[in-house]
Write a structure and sequence with these properties.
This protein is α/β, with parallel strands linked by helices. The chain has eight helices and five strands, in the order αβαβαβαβαβααα. The protein folds into two domains: 44 residues, no CATH class; 118 residues, Glycogen Phosphorylase B (Rossmann fold). The protein has a three-stranded parallel beta sheet with strand order 3-4-5, sandwiched between helices. The chain has a two-stranded parallel sheet with strand order 1-2. α4 packs across α7, α6 packs across α7 and α7 packs across α8. This is Glycosyl transferases group 1.
């Protein structure tokens, strides 16, 4: 995806962040073969570096398959970054419902098309990022989750919500 888009978007830099999951040699070989200096893999990020990497990003892409609840997607949305995730990502239904990014299949073509769409339409990228930030704040923040749990617990016991 990055190799294809680098050709058509000469002003964009692609940074792969994360552990190699046993594929480091293959990733290195692919990047060398591509010969594109604007695509780099920096490996895993230390927790204290995560916010810096997200702040530098325009778009956050998680092409993982069957990722149940990826913190990187939550953090990216909290920072107002549009996300691209596969339809097997546990957050895909929320991303899609909120319009916080683009949900794609597992194929390279749909992934490339989604990222291209966000790169080519800055207003769409800004809007989806804003919706992602609102989603995290309204539904996925600690306060929102605590309020929802309290409502569920009270509904099962028949107790009314106490005033705060």
């Amino acid at each position: 995806m990055a190799v294809a888009l680098a050709r058509s978007h000469p002003d964009v830099t692609f940074t792969l962040v994360g552990p190699d999951e046993g594929e480091g040699a293959a990733v290195d070989a692919l990047l060398r073969e591509a010969g594109e200096p604007r695509i780099r893999w920096i490996g895993p990020a230390r927790p204290e570096e995560t916010s810096t990497h997200i702040a530098r990003a325009s778009i956050s892409v998680l092409p993982s398959v069957d990722e149940p609840f990826p913190m990187s997607v939550l953090e990216s949305m909290a920072h107002g970054r549009p996300v691209v995730v596969t339809d097997t990502c546990g957050l895909a239904p929320l991303v899609e419902r909120a319009g916080a990014g683009i949900v794609v299949g597992e194929d390279d073509q749909s992934l490339t098309a989604a990222v291209r769409r966000l790169l080519d339409d800055p207003a769409l990228a800004t809007d989806t990022g804003r919706r992602g930030r609102a989603l995290v704040s309204d539904e996925l923040s600690m306060g929102a989750v605590a309020d929802r749990l309290e409502t569920i617990y009270r509904s099962t016991t028949g107790a009314s919500k106490r005033s705060r």
